[in-house]
Every structure is written in C-alpha cells, then in structure tokens.
Amino acid sequence: MNPLKPILLAGAALAAGLLSSCTTTTTSSSGSLGAYQSYDVPTKKPSNPSAVKVKVSLAKQRVYVMEGSTPLMVMPVSVGTPSSPTPSGNFTIYNKVAKKRANSHGYAYSGNNVKKTMLSSKPGGWSFKGTPMPYWCEFKPNYGFHTGWVKHTPCTHGCIRMHENLSPKFFNLVKVGTPVSIARTQPEDSTLGNIKLPPDAGPLPDYPVNMYTGDGYFSQHKAPNYN
C-alpha cells in the first residue's frame, strides 16, 4: 500500500464536484491487481475508419465500437453516478489527447510531501501536476473517454472511464469526427454485452503516487494488439 494514500484520500473530496476529473483513489486489499492488469478484450482494426461509430450503454456500462454491424471492440467501462451522470444523446469526438492532464485538479507536491488537491488550493511554494487522464477522447466540453480504474458500478463524475489496456486501443480506433451515441441501453447489450469483466477496481490497491505526478501512468498498459 502506498504510504501517501491517506493524504490523497483527504484531498479527494475537493475534486468531487468537477465533472472532468473522473478519478478515483482505491482502497487497499488483497484484490487481484495482477488479474486486473492482465485483462484485455479482442479488438479488430476497421477496414474503413470513417465508418467507425461508438455506442455507449449506461445501464450495462459497456462501450461498443462498431464498423457498421461488425463489432471492433466491446469493453466494460465506468460511467457517471446518478448525482453526476454521463450525458446521454448523440455526440462527436472532437478532441483527442494521448497525454491529457486536468487543468484545475491534481497533485500538489513539495519534497516527499504529496496531496491531491485543486490547483486553487495548492499550498504556496508547492509544485503542481494535473490529474493524468490518458488517451482522452472528448465528446462534450469537460466530458470524455479516458483511462482510469474501472469498477462494476457507476462511479465517475460523468466521464467514461476505460481500462488501462483498452484505452490505447480505443484511442486508435476512433478519430476526430467519430460519432458517439450514449443511451440508457443499446441493442447490442443482449447480443454482445455479456463479456468477461476485469476484477472490480474498488478494492484494489492504488498505484504509487509518483505514477501520477510523473509520466508512468501514461504508459501503464500492455502493448495494443489486434486480431
């Protein structure tokens, strides 16, 4: 367990109201971190990238990346809670940033002291790094798909959180202009949605804080592979 986690937990509430944060600090236990890190799903590259579309099921917490009627990737995700829901409707991905960091919330640090905080609350003289949100694909201002701990129940502030091994593949499958449909349910829920899930990230130990203040979290994934 990271000895700095109590400090991080104390500051987590400060970012709870920010829709674009979509971060979590998990609770340490004997959960299967190795099983979580090895999780992957089959993925195909499109024959026509312009025909790719994304469908999100909020109730099932699934994302279907489709080329026409052909699934390219089906992945579990975490979506917003009832108090901070993921918006539903038809959108378009209009911004992609592989190494995205939040502008207003993240980690203040000075020497060996680190705490999770809003930029506006950063102690004087401390350095600051925004919360990393790797493979950011924005579909509405302050809402996007990005890497994060995936749980089995809704837990984000409105963003769509992807597993670390799946987010780089999603990032490569979509482009600026890819349509995104977000609804309570999708027709694919009954035909494609019953996939094997990774362990629930809720009880898993968090990564060391230097993965977030440094660049480590941006490369915390397996090399993308395609069928």
From TrEMBL:
<comment type="similarity">
    <text>Belongs to the YkuD family.</text>
</comment>
<keyword id="KW-0133">Cell shape</keyword>
<dbReference type="InterPro" id="IPR050979">
    <property type="entry name" value="LD-transpeptidase"/>
</dbReference>
<keyword id="KW-0808">Transferase</keyword>
<feature type="active site" description="Proton donor/acceptor">
    <location>
        <position position="146"/>
    </location>
</feature>
<dbReference type="InterPro" id="IPR005490">
    <property type="entry name" value="LD_TPept_cat_dom"/>
</dbReference>
<keyword id="KW-0732">Signal</keyword>
<feature type="domain" description="L,D-TPase catalytic">
    <location>
        <begin position="52"/>
        <end position="183"/>
    </location>
</feature>
<comment type="pathway">
    <text>Cell wall biogenesis; peptidoglycan biosynthesis.</text>
</comment>
<feature type="active site" description="Nucleophile">
    <location>
        <position position="159"/>
    </location>
</feature>
<keyword id="KW-0573">Peptidoglycan synthesis</keyword>
<protein>
    <submittedName>
        <fullName>L,D-transpeptidase</fullName>
    </submittedName>
</protein>
<keyword id="KW-0961">Cell wall biogenesis/degradation</keyword>
<dbReference type="InterPro" id="IPR038063">
    <property type="entry name" value="Transpep_catalytic_dom"/>
</dbReference>
<dbReference type="Pfam" id="PF03734">
    <property type="entry name" value="YkuD"/>
</dbReference>
<feature type="signal peptide">
    <location>
        <begin position="1"/>
        <end position="15"/>
    </location>
</feature>
